[in-house]
Write the structure tokens for this entry.
Amino acid sequence: MVIDSLIAVAALLLLAPAGIALARSPLGRPAIYGASLALSLGLTAIGIVSLLGTHDSAATLPLGLPWLGARVRIDALSAFFLIVVNAGAAATSLFAFGYGRHEEAPARVLPFYPAYLAGMNLVLLSADAFSFLVSWEFMSLASWALVIAHHHVRENLRAGYVYLLMAAFGTLALMFAFGLLAGTDGHYAFADMRAAPPSAAFAAVVLVLALIGAGSKAGLVPLHAWLPLAHPAAPSHVSALMSGVMTKVAIYGFIRIVFDLAGPPAWWWSMPVITAGAVTAAMGVLYALMQRDLKRVLAYSTIENIGIVFVALGLALAFKANAMPFAAALAMTAALLHVLNHSLFKSLLFCGAGAVLSATGERDLEKLGGLIHRMPQTAFVFLVGCVAISALPPLNGFVSEWLTFQAILVSPQLASWGLNLMIPAAGALLALSAALAAACFVRVYGTVFLGRPRSEAARHAHEVERVSVVAMGLLAAACLLLGILPGYAIDALTPVTQLVAGGRMPVQAAEAWLSIVPIAESRSSYNGLLVFVFMAASGMIAAFTIHRLASNRIRRSAIWDCGFPDASPLTQYSADGFAQPIRRVFGTVVFGARERGEMPPPGSTEPARFSATVRDPIWDALYAPLAGLVAATTQTLNILQFLTIRRYLSLVFAALVLLLLVLAAWP
Amino acid sequence: MHGLAFDMAHMLAGSLVVVSFLELYQDRLLALINVYAVHALVLTLSVAWQAFVQDAPHLYVTALIALAFKAVAIPIGLRRIVVRLGIHREIDNVVGVGLAMLAGIGLVALSMVVMLRVTAEADPLAREDLAFALSVVLLGLLMMVTRRNAVSQVIGFMSLENGLVLAATGAKGMPLVVEISVAFSVLIAFIVIGIFLFRIRERFDTVDVQALDRFRGERQ
Amino acid sequence: MALIHDLVFQGAQMLLVLALAPLLTGFVRKVKARLLRRRGPPLIQPYRDLARLLRKDVVLADNASWLFRVVPYLVFAAVWIAASLVPTFRTGLLFSWTADLIALIALLGSARFFLALAGMDAGTGFGGIGASREVMIASLAEPAMMMIVFAIALIAGSTQLSTMAAFMNSPEVGLRVSLGLGLIALVIVAIAENARIPVDNPATHLELTMVHEAMVLEYSGRHLALIELGAFLKLLLYVSLIACLFAPWGLAPATGGAEHIAIGVVAYAAKLAACGFLLALFETAIAKMRVFRVPQFLGAALMLALLATLLRFVSRSF
């Protein structure tokens, strides 16, 4: 199995130079994306077979460090993430068949796309620290190249710069983490690290470093600053991959280090993870509500969902540390299921945003509107994505949210005071972010697709290519299927939870009517299929009865609007206006949101002006001072450029004397 | 699981905490005085229940004192002062209601942690009532800290004192003489504060503590 | 045989909630009118309103989409299913294992989601006002509701409504502080979710005062009838929820005979009447809050519910 996957990855790597060669020809796009699609599907199949077959396969390649080789391995965890990554990659490759036609610089996108896919898969397959870090950096570099593909837009260059900085910072943290795990003897293979877990103090440092390193790639607050800059800057199908898939690779890295390699967890490990997750979820969705750019909203919403995953992972860590394997399996299943669900609906939403962008040329929410009439199929699948991400039954977002809440309800059995105070607060923040996410996506869908068009571009939009709509439709269908038949997915995850959390949930496929029962039937259960059937049945019965027995006539007329003879689409609610109540309630405290109205004096014919200012607290508190500090330090150190020859010689002399002193004093 | 005695005592102590939160939520002075009257009423019920459960008739007298003074006489007196001073329409929060309530939740959590840890081997009924009483005390202090108006600060002080009485009656056997002295000291403090409020208002036309700060002697 | 039995009761429950919902609203309106010294409309006036609306033509705006036409059926279906799963006169509903209380709240959330979208579809200022205020209220009411569910689920040991109602009716539950806090918070959330005074005024059509009415301003005919029926069902759902969790006396057990069922039905009717009366009294006695005081009101509910959950986490006897 693992050799087959390596062959597929090698084929993806070979596509990169092929992309350079074929970029100008009309064959390039179908060839590259078609081959990526086929290879991604193959890798998904390999992942499914490995996960269901529950046997690991490993190999050692004669590359990399000479005394180590490059170890590759597929176990249950990497098999699951292979499925997640490659299913998303397949869907976006299919979408890019049609969307890629609008790409104005294909030579900058086509070579790096398969390289990016190859990098992500290599991270999942690596079984030693060296190949892991090399693949991680390769993945970052390939995606950086894609972020700055449209380099004539200035923000994209800045986005690429910040992305590169944060990626390098994350890799540094991971390097230290792996260094601590490898110990002084340099056992870089994962198998050796597993056999010799570090001491408690070192394990704590490894946890913090993994949280920083993998968390910055996943988008944990406060290390998230690159994400809303970089994800919108890339072409839309690449944004779908970065948000939906690369963040999951980061979560894989976190799970691998903290749950697998760092040894048995201590009782307090879950506390920073849960805190980081809860704060990330709440802040992410609040940021999303303040944005005007469609892709930025989706990027911040990714941050929110990553927060939810980390809360579930923290709960799993707490249960594992307390020797409660069933509860740990429940929390881990919730986290992994949310990973899968989020990759599906976030890819769907980003592809939809790409469709809107290619149809209208606009990303600004204030310039769209009424697209449901011009792009009906895109509107329908985008609606499915919005309903899924708002965690509404009967779609898949609700299932993982429900499982997370069930895990929270088991947690009073944990015997720790700190956790008993922290978990209800985290649960409240989670519920708050779920409600705010629904508000955010009502805003997005209502402003983009509903209402009346706010600009010429929206008025003249047209439906996108059939193949892109099919790709989005497949993702929407997957969301529905996972929502109404979640039991099969939960059963498929048992090898992973067995490996990582040490326990498993009860067999779901045996439950009556395909419900899911996390603990016991009398305690809680949910049946997505029946909820869906009941809703459809009652809606149709109501429609049928009323149309037969009462009236079914429709008349079209001008809009009522309480009798106002309204003409302009500008009188309808704007995106900023929609968010104003929430901005006033939450934003005054969190973002320092202020509204100011300037009224002209009486008798003057000038217009009144209204301005609302929002400040990013994390940028002001963390990044701006850091950047200032770095700038000030480098400014001070700049004097080293302008010394005389005598000064340089004395520097060299001083360094030499210092080293000799250290050597003399070394015990 | 536990008997009616336990549950009823718990319910009344918990209601006292809830009424303290209600006090934090108010921003009009007259409404605040009414809620304080309810606070004293719940305290009365709680002390009366303790008297019934512990079979201690002197606690009935304590309850009666609480009812007569704190639930009836003091609210009426404060009401008259407030209307006399003409400040019954003022809003006097320093921080918003939401933040104050969030801080209140934090304080309740803190008092739970402290009390239930420190008294790990005591009787469960007494422990948890003590935890609630400490919460009421801390919430009274929070109210004194987050209000500008001197009258609201007085009410915060009164609720704090109610919390202390709750703690004292929760533990078995508090002598009546302590209660009488406590009540009298409260009464005297109240009279003094009332007189001062009138004098301050006459001199400076305001009882806003921040404005009063400007007139302190050692300020330049 | 037992399956048929349970199926009959589940079906009876579904029809019962559908039949009683307009009556509850009519009762509340009548009591409010009487308290204001008016005679008020007859108790069956909501039924007449629905029948009248069903017979009329639907007048659609020119730019209304297919979503606008589908939303009333979706909203009605979601709320009806949710209302059928709350025990009214008997616990042990056959399909109560399909959706527990968390799923119920999420079903109501999806009804609200689609209604807000329909408000945006109109493309006018009114729809936008209604939708944006509605989601602001929901962003505080839903977490408060979720924390209430946590608090009660931690006491009852389950999130399934039939199990919770049966537990509340048993002698094992004592007077718990968390239950008291949960009750207050649930009443506040119920008022907010059902668009009652002091959060929203169901009898007004003034822009300043409307939230729910603004979202459905453009609906007419059978669509409006379904949305109104959905609103009636939602009120019935919340009243039944408060009744079965906090006043479960008289609830027939799953294995009860005919006399238990009769007592259950009579008890349920009494609870509906009592809650309707208290709601009318409360609405008459208090004024509507201005819009930006509502977040403080709901924030208080969220804090109380959070306190209730916190107390349950901290100790078993709270």
